[in-house]
Amino acid sequence: MSFIAAIDQGTTSTRCMIFDEEARVVAVDQREHEQFYPRPGWVEHDPAEIWLNVQSCITNALHRAEITARDLAAVGITNQRETVVLWDRHTGTPVHNAIVWQDTRTDALISALAADGGQDRFRDRTGLPLATYFSGPKIRWLLDQDPELRRRAEAGDVLFGTVDSWVIWNLTGEHVTDVTNASRTMLMNLSTVDWDPVLLEAMGVPRAMLPEIRPSSAVYGECTGPLHGVPVAAAFGDQQAALFGQACFSPGDAKCTYGTGAFLLQNTGPSPMLSKAGLITTVAYQLTGGQPVYALEGSIAVAGSLVQWLRDGLGLISRAADMDELAASVPDSGGVVIVPAFSGLFAPHWRADARGIIAGLTAYATRAHLARATLEATAWQVREVADAMLADSGLPLRELRVDGGMTVNEVLLQIQADVLDAPVIRPQVTETTALGAAYAAGLAVGYWPDLASLEANWRADRTWHPAMPASEREAGYARWRKAVARTLDWA
Fold it and tell me: In the chain, how many domains are there?
């Protein structure tokens, strides 16, 4: 018997998961890494710590599965996106901590870039608005701090990669990335699926430091170390991996992952569809020998982290698991609305000046109402993104497949079905990010024959159907949008 491994390198932790042919989880090991906050708005990780954790997770997952590397057909990588790592080509040593996707230190650079052409200056080439979220400006910021670092980068002695590239480099010695991660750098042209010279010049990023762009499902090289001889056969930005793991292979198929943030992606087919409603156009996946498949994405910065804030910041709950019971103890939020714009609003607003508010407070409100308003905040943000997707693509949301840590909260999923007026489906395997990477790796080496075999593996665990009257839904949505308007022009 053989298996497929997936390395899931996320914002707060790293996991190695091992799957069998029926997409069942055989073993998993997970390690958290430290979060560094050198200044307000700055977020960093230690790439060396991440690589040590990758190795530890691999070794422990193999031990738990009672197998060796020889039992693995391939390994796939999925990763936190937009996070920037620079390292020395000759020593493999990082030259700086990784700058994380949440980091906002490039806000002045973004404003300077937007002064000539506005926030959508590069959208026709990249599908992205100018925002601190993406990788290119982070690279530019690092190079601007140190002329010697820039000289070394121009000579090809310092390499750039998103976290997938960093992990693959350490596993195989190859300097590559995949189309999904490259599409989030603001340096890749969506149509040519290659680094764009106009973008590189505007961003001030030398091409010599960039990895080769490859399909998401392809053999990149063979591992050394604990996975010696195993082919690395996939790389995937985490949200695109979840779309793939949810078997969303047809235009109109959509999934939402509820984690630190919430990320709604809809497959839009073989042509990039530029958004006019505040969404991101991104590459969904590309198989070896095939053309890229594209998606619209709505990125929501704060979802599960709002629950953490209620727990750690306010002390209203002692465990995140308490949210379900507390929110279910009241029929509604009592008129309370929470908009968690802690560091601005992402899709579909893209307003860095927004800040969070709690509105509609009366003496009637209790911590139970705040708990329910917290879950509603995530659901209404997803509704805004779903409306934007319909406006852009014309593809109605027939159903929403969901995954991520928050999907254990069944009150949230019922609220989500109610505010979307569409079924919400949780699959039996909710670790769809790692599963997507495993699927792509398995396809590349023939472990699974085709997409149809992956669709056959997908099985629903439970479905939530909308039960809210239309009048109540639209009144709630109007209240939400009124609250969002109150958050703007604050910072």
Answer: 1
